[in-house]
Fold these 3 entries.
Entry 1:
Amino acid sequence: MLWAVRRCAAAAVMGALLAGCGPTAAGTGGKGDGGTGARTEVKVEPIEAARSVTDAKGVTVATKAPPRRVVCLVALCDDMLTELGMTPVATNSALLAHPRFLGKEKAATIPVVPGGFLAPEAEAVLSHEPDLVIGLKDTHGKLAPALKGATVFWPVQPDKWEDSVGYLRDLAALTGRTAQGEAAERTFRAKLAEAESTRSDKTALVIFGGDENFGVATPGNDVAAGLLPKIAHYPWKSRGVDGTYSMEEILAADVDVLFVETLSFGGPSEDKLSDKLARNPLWSRIPAVRNGDVHEVDSEAWAKGRGTRSLGLVLDEATAALR
């Protein structure tokens, strides 16, 4: 359940247990296993403007004219628009308030779609007269019938950074902002390639949660976590929707650097997840905790952003911590 909550960035009760999935420590190869293969290609192929695109998931999106009024129901949309020099006419994400995006003052001028992430109101969405609405497929797909005929709905579902780049390129083609799309992709690819060239041999871990329950972010289930094996030793593998790692397993893995995402539901969190986990006696025995290498990170960018600007921020913060 915890994975479903994070995947949807939803305001719901999390259900993973601290103890749990067996006594064996994580392991997918030694620290010198070299990551996930060849260094990322920096070259960017030209983007051509188009009225119709078919994304990597096989979804075809067509607009009569370059979309200018875009409603964002998922933070990836806000990320892509920012990269293209655009702003949404409405959003339900807090990502734009981050200093790397619009900042709090400018973000406050963007209308918020009522209903929250899980249940945005269709009438409210249409009140902004959008020519394109971008939402998460497994969360907002149910809105499609209510929007049909009034606007174009684009369901996205990124699983890895390549998906995010593909969505950016497709949106750049639709909006005609091809130069901006190419520049954003080039910047991200160069940053990732540079991070790969200075890969750390430290063991890293990204955990998330809203209370003493937590989950481990793993490649395939989490776009940002998919970057970590490229820049550090990251031995964590997905255990499916209901699987997680126990504190005992994390302790056994000798984690050098911990990144912690505190997910808040219904408002700002008063307590950091790392402070709550400190109540567990095993927490203080983790090398990263003992050595003061625990980093509370912005969950809007790390957990929800998923686009090239958010992922670039993740790379900046992660590589700095892993030095």
Entry 2:
Amino acid sequence: MTDSPSRVAVVTGAGRGIGAAVAARLADDGFAVALLDLDEAGVKQGAEAIVTGGGKAVGVALDVSDAEQVEAAVTRVADELGPPVVLINNAGITRDNLIFKMTEQDWDSVLGVHLKGSFLMTRAVQKYMTQEKYGRIVNLSSTSALGNRGQVNYSAAKAGMQGFTKTLAIELGKFNVTANAIAPGFIATDMTAATAERLGMGFEDFKAAAATQIPVQRVGTPDDIAHLASFLVSEGAGFISGQVIYAAGGPKD
């Protein structure tokens, strides 16, 4: 690996799915990893697996949309592992519905986790990045940013993540901090399984139907996103910033 083992990465939404896969991959790359999620059992299990494998990790339960919890969690990470210089803003939820059925709570909850959560986490972590004169931020957007029926809240949040990313790249670049976004397409996770259930479809049938619409003829996996995140936080990606990369098995507008 090319990255110093002493560097610390923070991954939100790391209790399962994409976040868990990214955390495991960054640990393999030599980072000390802080796994953050509402799911305390999930992050503690993930951290224990990394430590058992010879790495350094800590699992912290928090609500990323709560400023006090975010500040406390990031301070704990810095105290236990060292200054965090890599941040993966992955925490997210869905509250899908057509707009005429969508409640204010559905809207507020989704934007609160995705956008406010990413803002709070980035504000807390960038202090360490600017002091260290080094940082990598990767924000999780989605192909839903281009519009998706029944997801007006999620689509707005994921489109917002792209503007958020580009502005971070402009503001933080002088401190040797890059910011990029990954916009996954269909990834087989518990979240997409829940969507299949909501639609009354078996998950295997749901994935098979989705694959027919994807040029590479398969759905994505969390590891597909973890590989891309690994590159974007590497030394070799230091001249890439402010970009949105669609990891969707084919081109997107």
Entry 3:
Amino acid sequence: MFSRLSRPVFLAVCAVPVVALFVIVAVLPLPYAVAVPGLTADVLGVDKGQQVITVGRAPVRKTTGQLRMTTIEATGPSATVYLGDVVKGWFRPKEAVLPRDAVYPAGQSVKEIDKTNTNDMVQSQDDAVTAALAYLHKDPKSVDVTLHLADVGGPSAGLLFTLGIIDKLAGDGSGGDLTGGRTIAGTGTIDGSGAVGAVGGVALKTQAAARAGATVFLVPKAECADAKVNLPAGMRLVPATTLRGAVTALKALGSGGRVPAC
């Protein structure tokens, strides 16, 4: 036979497993990564003492303005993230809490992840060269393009690489710069046909862009809503789904024409 517990005692007894659960969650690592705005690099300029875009067997323009690729910096794939880190990340506008699998391929070791990121970057560079030369109707056998960017992996610089090659070789097609002399940042993958793909982390990348002095941000159209979150004051979002659309938008920006918006 069980004696009847008073209400305060009953509530206290019920609270014990709940408190225990919170204690366990607080000390156990969670499957999340905490990300912050990362570095940016001007693909028209120099990185670690070396030109990002080097062109051979073809005349190269002297450019003004900047085309800055953007990144995020996330806790490493083997880093331990606790509940306190997640809670702090939720309340800090310059941090984002992301599922670890959204940042790093699931089931891969650190070494395998590094290899994947490197391979993705190499493929992105190859696709950028292919897309840019196809857009300019240039024979790849007649133009030698080499891309160099240290300490960056993944495919998200593809669009900016492609635009940088076009600006170096042809500018806006009328004697001016594709940038119009502005500091323009952005992100987005590219494939050989010129299709622009989503990348993730755009809300942090716009902050990195603002820190570098950019006032225009090229974003894959599918990520417009994400890019508007905590958007820095004065930052203009320009959506893109194709390379041709991105080039057209930059030309319109320089000439005062109609520019698409998110």
